[in-house]
Amino acid sequence: MTQVTGAGKPESGVALSNEQRREGRCRRGVGTGPPRFSPLILRVTLSNTSCDLAFSKYRDAMHSHISLLTDYGLNDEFVGVMKSVIVDVAPHVRITDLTHGVPAFDVRAGSLALARAIQYVPAGIVIAVVDPGVGSSRRAIAIEIANGQGILLGPDNGLLTSAAAMAGGAERAFELTNTDLHLGAPGVTFAGRDVFAPVAAFLCNGGTLEEVGREIDTASVMPGLVPIPTETTHDTFGEGVKCEVTWVDAYGNCQLNAGPEDLQQFGPILRLVIGEDIRSARVVSHFADIDGGAIGAVIDSYGMIALAVDRQSAAVELRLQAGDAVHVFAGESGVSTSSVTLRSTQ
Length: 346
Prior knowledge:
The chain is of the alpha+beta class. The protein has helices at residues 18-22, 78-89, 107-117, 161-166, 191-204, 260-263, 314-318; strands spanning 2-5, 43-46, 65-70, 94-99, 124-129, 140-145, 150-155, 172-175, 215-216, 230-234, 238-248, 254-256, 269-274, 277-284, 295-299, 305-308, 325-330. It has two domains: 62-220, S-adenosyl-l-methionine hydroxide adenosyltransferase, N-terminal (Rossmann fold); 230-330, Bacterial fluorinating enzyme like (Elongation Factor Tu (Ef-tu), domain 3, Beta Barrel). It contains seven helices and 17 strands. The strands form three sheets. The chain has a seven-stranded mixed sheet, sandwiched between helices. A seven-stranded mixed β-barrel has the order 11-12-16-15-14-13-17. Strands 1-2 form a two-stranded antiparallel sheet.
């Protein structure tokens, strides 16, 4: 048996050859000092006749693309370290950053962002990490989707299930219990680096889902929390729909959990009741069609209704944030949709 210390320098002191990469060796990178934590070293055991652990040989590459979605932000090194682990083990992989701007610890926001994006993501692996329970008893899982063309990796906390549903449903699920595929680490709080990144690289090198851990019932995976619009009644305005803001984008547009079909019975002018505010909004197809200073109900790029103000922030104007309720009723034709509030500004 030969012990290969993956994170150390190759014996020659030069860059790794393709064959060494295929044997699973990892460079430490461009740093001049020794690794501070020896547990970060990835050890791969080889035999003359077979491979005992995952990274010993390139198999026929199953996947060549990895998409990332996290709440890590970009101020720290977390994202770069994850990518480094992936590329060192699977250098052929292309990586797409969906977003690293999910609000910290906000599993629902991450789940909704992934559900919005999944229909545009290339075939391959998706690593999603919004993981306030990291290091606890929560499971790290893989979900197979789209007839095996896609695999979602992440914590079992509801983050992955909405995207899986959008992709046609979870076909198989596995708990990532094979620790031989994980990086050793001095702590358990960086599963993106130590669990999800190396497992993704293993799968991209031709590894199979059966090797990542034990198969689990897809029904046991924690469901996502996706709000649905519900019926409501107002003493003055009659029957309506209670909606919720699911997402406020960088421009301040407020996406509701309702599509045009949910609100079509109210006609082209909507009456919005937001707390003590009462506003009118016209349903439009694009932002420039909103009258100056008015509130528009735009059919956004995902086919949902979003409250918007042309070249301004609807979130600021309406004092809305994700999770806030918006009650929608039929408006009156001919009523101005200018931004006039009935709530005291005191």
